[in-house]
Amino acid sequence: MALAVAVALPASAFPSGLPPGAPTFPNPWAAFQNLSGCHMGDDRQGLAGLKDYLSHFGYLPPPPSSSPFSDAFDQDLEAAIATYQRNFGLNATGALDASTVSQMVAPRCGVADVINGTSTMARSSSADAHGRHLYAYFPGEPTWPPFRRDLRYAITATSETSIDRSTLSDVFARAFSRWAAATNLRFTETASESNADITIGFYAGSHGDGEPFDGPLGTLAHAFSPTDGRFHLDAAEAWVADSDVSRSSTPGAVDLESVAVHEIGHLLGLGHSSVPDAIMYPTIRTGTRKVELEADDVQGIQSLYGSNPNFTPTSPATSSREMDSSAGAGFRPDRVFVGVVAAVGLLLVIVP
């Protein structure tokens, strides 16, 4: 799992927050740090950019082309910030306090948190003290139909990444296995794009889906809701695929499998969760590995697809890999577009 709203919305996990103060690694949203303390009635350079950010993730409608966002802190901005704060469990004052700004600059999934005016983060006062049942779905609850429980995925665009194909296959197989373990879904890698339900690729900048990536951090990835099947990752990220990301000396290191598990949740129909430990939480810290489904993720996905009677939280199933010799085909225009909230250079948002 930003919001291009066409027919559906994408999905695109990512870093859960950076420490207060200026980020130690270039971040497209770092300038928001200069807005800490702003509140209703202020007029501060940079607020227009913050409005663009909030619009991208669904908290504000896009401005008309003839009248771009201004730097005025108005009622609409205050309401949007308050909604954002409620979604992330912050004090909903509508003002830009330090904790809100710190959350906003965190790398994340590109999928929107609010789609067509409805929050996908499902935070409500009726949730129990343990934060259960805060998983959410996309509007209309799109899913893969009952006759499609064996899904094929193809890794189709790798020229923008230096990670070798074998390592990518291993990472994505493990990521899909997390969801297969909890459900009756099965996933198989195929070499044929034309034979795939899901396509995975690394892209830089604008790449044809209306949700351009923004360079290191910011949006990590994004994915589209069922049954679109597209999953895109920002090639500019410092992806860690075959080593311990917590020991990486690379600035801005992001764990590929962690982001992949999150985005696959979007591909299957899950929106973002308000539970910080959940896979479907929109943000993830750099240098962090987060791949195990939490109770919130399991409850959400099993509500859509049923449960695997052999499921145990610590024993993900193994996804198989099929390598056939069919030639890859191009993007399938017959697929229904599911709006992406540009996610994820996942917020890696992934998106989206």
TrEMBL record:
Cofactor binding notes: Binds 2 Zn(2+) ions per subunit.
Feature: compositional bias, Polar residues: 304-320
GO MF, one example: zinc ion binding
Residues engaged in binding Zn(2+) 1: 207, 209, 222, 232
Domain Peptidase metallopeptidase as annotated: residue spans: 140-307
SMART domains with a match to the protein in the record: ZnMc
Positions bound to Ca(2+) 3: 214-215, 234, 237
Keywords attached to this entry: Calcium, Glycoprotein, Hydrolase, Metal-binding, Metalloprotease, Protease, Signal, Zinc, Zymogen
GO cellular component: extracellular matrix
Location of the active site: 263
GO biological process: collagen catabolic process; extracellular matrix organization; proteolysis
Stored CDD domains: ZnMc_MMP
InterPro entries: M10A_MMP, MetalloPept_cat_dom_sf, Pept_M10_metallopeptidase, Pept_M10A, Peptidase_Metallo, Peptidoglycan-bd-like, PGBD-like_sf
Protein known as: Metalloendoproteinase 1
Species the sequence originates in: Saccharum officinarum
